[in-house]
Amino acid sequence: MADDIVGVKRFRNDMTCMNKYKYTMGETHHHRGEVKVGESGLHLSLSLVDIIELCRDDIYCRVVGSGKTHRSGPFIAAEYLHVVEPLNGWFDCTTALMHFKDGKLHDADGQCAFQYDNGDVLSFKNGNFIKTYLGSWKRRQ
User: Fold this and answer.
1) What are the residues facing 123 on neighbouring strands?
2) pTM
3) What percent of the chain has pLDDT over 70?
4) Domain total for the chain?
5) DSSP 3-state assignment of 139?
6) I want to staple 82 with a disulfide (CB 3.0 to 4.6 A). Which of 28, 45, 127, 133 is the partner?
7) What domain range is 101 assigned to?
8) Same domain for 22 and 59?
């Protein structure tokens, strides 16, 4: 039995993942059988950068994997996966800050979604990403 592994998971807007399995916020889900990254089990990532996609409707959540696990790089397949909560606020992801509100990669009021180390901002306008070059502005915290 492995220790709990805290990570992140990206879901479609309906809380399904790539294999169409439907998750529920606040619940623990169980996979019976072998767990292997990319093949079977309930997947999570240790790195937000490795799962981020510029898709407006995806939901990103903090999750905890447990039971039997298999790791490949930053990815984990687990026997159990508890969906803790949607991401909220600013997250520092190596080369950029990312802003989430209710698990979504943006604010309803148009606050920027990304702010890169060089100060450039990537935000949404009318459903499209807009890049603003700000040069050496300070990163938001």
Assistant:
1) 130
2) 0.77
3) 67
4) 2
5) coil
6) 28
7) 89-132
8) yes
